[in-house]
């Protein structure tokens, strides 16, 4: 800021501005107290900081001493380090010592702030406030003198006004007085007195004006200039103390800088390889590479480590080899590409270390790890493909030569389709599979690698149908059981599961039982194991001569298990026990219950006593299941029992994948009745015949019995259960069994109840059902034929509305018929 020749002053510029100036100076002096409080708090912070630095250094000295050995040579060194520390720990000790020295500097700085800055500020603030008050008192005295002069002038003015009034009064008296001479003399004398008072008043005015001039131009400016000098003197002293504070802090920082420079020198001596060298020297030891993995035979299946090379195995190996060879070239190129990317990022990292490139090293290292993860993933796939290729080629040669592989495309089958290899349904939980684009071959995901490479190429629609039929016939033929199980297996053993029930009702056993060849069975489908003895090995001549090496198969697991409780020979129960089939899968959730899958055959042990639960035997397991989950077969005479496997009836395989003949998603069981001990089920009987109008309703015949699931909530409909399905029926069409009998006797005197209105949510509220009135069972419902089917298309709404209007008139006729019957019954 440039200096001016003559600095402006308060007296010359502000004139009568003492009071605001005095207030401003008072603020400046009171500010000194805030400044000295600041330095006191700063001193306290520095002292507290110094104490915390000392405590921090002490804390981490103790931690360093505890972790010195693990940080230097690890947890399990081959040689103890003694009192030696790694280079990094030595540097760390230097940093902690430097921290303690810096703490001492901050403590000293805090003491200096108190003694050299805060205390002088407090003293100056007190002295400056005293001077300011003296200026204020003097200015007040000058103002009082000015006001006194103004008061004297006002008094003189009042005397002058009174003299003028007296003259006027004398004049009026002289005019009305009888003694004119005396009155005139008094009047003249009063005029003289008035003139003297006037002169005195004029002199007082001049004196007052002169005093005012001196007040505003001499006295007040002098006081204000002195006040200005006081404010500037305060600023000068404040600057001096600020300078002292800055010098103290600069000295402290300079000392700290020297400490940090010394620390930087020590840090530069800590070379990165020194810690590694110390760790290596104290952890030298012998390395033993883990041995390679070898083939371990199963404890129940004695085998060797040679590859199986029969025809079935070759199909699987050919498919594996085809996939590996197809991907190997791409994988090698992908590995080379990923490796080049990793090397490029590593070069960037080295340039960052050298300081030639400005990037975040952490982000670069993160990219390196991400690329290395991708590289390792692709490289593992490459190694797997190479080893698979070399292993299969060394065992069976290149079996992919001349193979006609299927052009498979992965898809999820939304329509139930049969697998051309195993014959099972591709649906539900097993809906994912493959479809050949050329010949239409379909298979499960699990069957893909077992499909022979015999694709005939692109086929027409008729040729695909013919191939499909041939493949399904071949798949079903493989599922038929053999007459007896071989005692010695060749390289392609066949495991057979035979029928466990001697007889069931006609057509029922064939739909409920299976015999599966070469496939695993679910543990829940297993029958009780029969006691048997280990079968002797057949002579060597019985083994196929085409295999290079013979394998003796271990006996099946049933040979090691004794007969379980509740099982019988051939799995048949007592002749008087009723048998049935599970309509739905039931999962046990309490004591006494048993889990049974859909389609499983069960034997009734205890019938339903009204609780909705029956006790059954499924294989060798016993427990209770919901009665509505079981479809009981009518009793039939049992065939004489024969233990020979050849005398058992063959089980017919169903392509549906379940015992239920219809294809579709897995069915959900109905509402389960309360367990034993709970409230008994409530039954109702149909009073009239009723035809269901939608899939959500039950059809009824007179006298038909249902299980009541939910009574009428007020909308005129009740929920009942029949055949495991819970649907709605008109609440007024059903009644408890005792009331139903009475109603049947008096049915001619009763009228068919009013059908409830039911809102069709599928038609968004534009259609309300109106059922006709049905005759008792002896007569058909006259209005049943006029009820239109439900429609969901908006295009048909208008047409059906017009039809409904015509049919409404016919329904009115039915209502009239109803009223006439009421009158006749009342009469």
Keywords, separated by commas or semicolons:
827 residues; alpha+beta; Substrate Binding Domain Of Dnak, Chain:A, Domain 2; Wheat Germ Agglutinin (Isolectin 2), domain 1; 5 domains; five-stranded antiparallel sheet; 11 helices; flat
Kindly state the mean pLDDT as a whole number? 75
Per DSSP, the total helix count is 11
- Radius of gyration, Cα only, in angstroms? 57 Å
Q: Can you summarize the main beta sheet?
A: 5 strands, antiparallel
Residues in helices, as a percent range: 40-55%
Name the CATH architecture of the largest domain. Up-down Bundle
Number of strands: 15
Keywords: Coiled coil, Metal-binding, SH3 domain, Zinc
GO molecular function: metal ion binding
Biased composition (Polar residues): 482-508, 640-661
Protein name: Protein BZZ1
Q: Can you summarize this structure?
A:
With 827 residues, the chain is α+β, with helices and mostly antiparallel strands.
Topology:
Layout: H1 10-14, H2 18-73, H3 87-176, H4 180-268, H5 272-282, H6 311-354, H7 361-396, E1 408-412, E2 417-418, E3 425-426, E4 432-436, E5 442-444, H8 461-478, H9 508-512, E6 579-582, E7 601-606, E8 613-618, E9 621-626, E10 630-632, E11 682-686, E12 705-710, E13 717-722, E14 725-730, E15 734-735, H10 737-745, H11 797-826
Antiparallel strand pairs: 1-4, 2-3, 4-5, 6-7, 6-10, 7-8, 8-9, 11-12, 11-15, 12-13, 13-14
């Amino acid at each position: 800021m440039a200096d001016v020749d003559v600095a402006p002053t308060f007296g010359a510029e502000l004139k009568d501005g003492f009071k605001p100036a005095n207030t401003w100076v008072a603020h400046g002096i009171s500010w000194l107290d805030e400044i000295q409080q600041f330095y006191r708090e700063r001193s306290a912070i520095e002292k507290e900081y110094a104490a915390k630095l000392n405590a921090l250094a002490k804390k981490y000295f103790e931690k360093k001493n505890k972790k010195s050995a693990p940080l230097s040579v690890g947890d399990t060194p081959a040689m103890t380090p003694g009192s030696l520390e790694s280079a990094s720990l030595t540097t760390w000790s230097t940093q902690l010592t430097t921290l303690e020295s810096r703490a001492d500097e901050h403590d000293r700085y805090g003491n200096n702030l108190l003694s050299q800055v805060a205390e002088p500020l407090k003293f100056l603030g007190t002295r400056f406030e005293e001077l300011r008050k003296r200026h204020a008192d003097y200015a007040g005295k000058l103002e009082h003198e000015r006001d006194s002069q103004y008061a004297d002038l006002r008094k003189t003015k009042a005397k002058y006004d009174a003299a003028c009034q007296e003259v006027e009064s004398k004049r009026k008296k002289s005019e009305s007085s009888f003694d004119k001479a005396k009155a005139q003399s008094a009047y003249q004398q009063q005029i003289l007195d008035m003139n003297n008072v006037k002169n005195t008043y004029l002199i007082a005015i001049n004196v007052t004006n002169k005093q005012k001039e001196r007040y505003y131009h001499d006295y007040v400016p002098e006081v204000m200039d002195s006040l200005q000098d006081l404010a500037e003197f305060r600023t000068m002293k404040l600057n001096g103390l600020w300078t002292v504070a800055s010098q103290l802090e600069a000295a402290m920082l300079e000392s700290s800088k020297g400490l940090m420079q010394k620390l930087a020198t020590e840090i530069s001596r800590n070379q990165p390889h020194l810690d590694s060298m110390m760790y290596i020297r104290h952890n030298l030891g012998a390395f033993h590479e883990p041995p390679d993995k070898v083939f371990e035979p199963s404890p129940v299946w004695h085998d060797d480590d040679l590859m199986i090379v029969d025809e079935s195995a070759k199909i699987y190996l050919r498919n594996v080899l085809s996939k590996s060879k197809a991907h190997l070239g791409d994988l090698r190129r992908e590995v080379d590409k990923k490796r080049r990317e990793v090397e490029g990022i590593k070069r960037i990292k080295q340039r960052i270390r050298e300081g030639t490139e400005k990037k975040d090293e952490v982000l670069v290292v993160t990219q390196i790890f991400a690329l290395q993860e991708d590289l390792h993933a692709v490289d593992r796939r490459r190694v797997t493909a190479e080893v698979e290729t070399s292993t299969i080629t060394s065992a069976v040669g290149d079996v992919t030569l001349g193979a006609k592989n299927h052009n498979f495309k992965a898809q999820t089958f939304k329509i139930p389709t049969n697998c051309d290899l195993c014959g099972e349904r591709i649906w539900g939980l097993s809906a994912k599979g493959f479809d050949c684009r050329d010949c239409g071959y379909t298979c499960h995901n699990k069957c893909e690698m077992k499909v022979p490479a015999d694709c005939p190429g692109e086929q027409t629609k008729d040729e695909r149908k013919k191939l499909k039929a041939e493949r399904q016939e071949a798949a079903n033929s493989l599922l038929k059981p053999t007459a007896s199980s071989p005692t010695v297996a060749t390289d392609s053993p066949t495991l057979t599961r035979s029928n466990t029930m001697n007889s069931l009702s006609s057509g029922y056993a064939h739909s409920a039982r299976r015999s599966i060849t070469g496939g695993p069975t679910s543990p829940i489908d297993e029958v009780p194991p029969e006691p048997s003895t280990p079968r002797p090995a057949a002579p060597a001549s019985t083994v196929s001569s085409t295999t290079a090496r013979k394998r003796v198969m271990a006996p099946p697991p049933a040979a090691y298990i004794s007969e379980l409780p509740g099982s019988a020979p051939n799995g048949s129960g007592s002749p008087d026990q009723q048998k049935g089939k599970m309509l739905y899968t039931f999962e046990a959730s309490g004591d006494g219950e048993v889990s049974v899958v859909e389609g499983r055959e069960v034997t009734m042990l205890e019938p339903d006593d009204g609780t909705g639960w029956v006790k059954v035997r499924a294989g060798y397991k016993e427990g209770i299941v919901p009665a509505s989950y079981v479809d009981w077969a009518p009793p039939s005479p049992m065939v004489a029992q024969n233990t020979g496997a050849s005398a058992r009836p063959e089980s017919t395989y169903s392509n549906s994948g379940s015992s239920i003949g219809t294809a579709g998603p897995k069915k959900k069981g109905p509402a389960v009745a309360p367990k034993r001990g709970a409230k008994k089920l409530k039954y109702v009987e149909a009073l009239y015949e009723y035809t269901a109008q939608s899939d959500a309703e039950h059809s009824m015949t007179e006298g038909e019995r249902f299980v009541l699931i939910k009574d009428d909530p007020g909308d005129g409909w009740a929920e009942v259960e029949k055949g495991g399905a819970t649907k709605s029926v008109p609440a007024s069409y059903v009644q408890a069994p005792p009331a139903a009998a009475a109603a049947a006797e008096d049915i001619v005197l009763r009228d068919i109840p009013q059908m409830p209105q039911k809102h069709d949510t599928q038609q968004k509220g534009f259609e309300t059902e109106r059922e006709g009135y049905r005759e008792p069972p002896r007569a058909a419902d006259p209005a049943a034929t006029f009820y239109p089917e439900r429609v969901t298309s908006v295009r048909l709404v208008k047409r059906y509305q017009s039809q409904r209007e015509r049919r409404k008139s016919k329904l009115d006729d039915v209502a009239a018929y109803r009223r006439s019957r009421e009158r006749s019954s009342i009469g």
